[in-house]
């Protein structure tokens, strides 16, 4: 037996909590930006994914008018820093609602390094940095989706295996519902099945009926 939820009847905040509890796990974009006045901002955003392959575009969503969004609109640049397990405390601390004139790098004590193609700095201890130029934004109700074209990627060699980033070395963090976070856990590997090789899968006996 299911419990039914009507978003209009439930209301914004309770339904938001429901969505973030069932759309899990969510990867984290640890976004660094610079304001027009020169303040460096750093904040985690868990509404984050790849939007396009060619050209390479990533997206994150700002729920409300947050510093990351304002800075990207002002300067047209941002960096998505990888959010690893070992930086959990610092990532959580940068979610604090500091006023716009306070830079999270300094407030939290996070070392930075210069980016190659954009002005916002990278997080020095983060193993991956995706340097982005603003492609476009889309306003949806109380939120704004930010699309950034990746113009440069920097990956620490210690997470590489045969020329490819290896997930057990990356050790990504993910967001769940409430105040919950998740670490990598068990990794499952299966190749994608071609239709020519399809035999009905784990739950079927094939298409021939035999």
- How much is the radius of gyration in Å? 20 Å
Please report which band the strand proportion falls in: under 5%, 5-15%, 15-25%, 25-35%, 35-45% or over 45%: 25-35%
Number of strands: 14
Number of helices: 6
Order of helices and strands: HHEEEEEHEHHEEEEEEHEE
* Average of per-residue pLDDT values: 95
Strand pairing plus helix content: what structural class?
A: alpha+beta
Distance from N terminus to C terminus (CA atoms, Å) equals 34 Å
Overall geometric form: globular
Name the poorly predicted regions: none
Main sheet, how many strands, which sense, barrel? 7 strands, antiparallel
Oligomer: single chain
EC number: 1.5.1.-
Pfam families: Flavin_Reduct (PF01613)
Domain Flavin reductase like: 21-175
Protein name: Flavin reductase family protein
Describe the structure using short key phrases.
about 210 residues, alpha+beta, 7-stranded antiparallel sheet, 3-stranded antiparallel sheet, 14 strands, about 20% helix, globular
Q: Can you give a write-up of this model?
A:
The protein has a seven-stranded antiparallel sheet with strand order 3-2-6-9-10-5-4, with helices on one face. The chain has a three-stranded antiparallel sheet with strand order 1-13-14, with no helix packed on it. A two-stranded antiparallel ribbon has the order 7-8. The model has no long low-confidence stretch (mean pLDDT 95). The protein is α+β, with helices and mostly antiparallel strands. The chain starts with 6 loop residues before the first helix and ends in a 28-residue tail after the last strand. It is globular. Helix content is 19%, strand content 33%. It contains six helices and 14 strands. Strand 13 and strand 14 (181-182) form a beta hairpin.
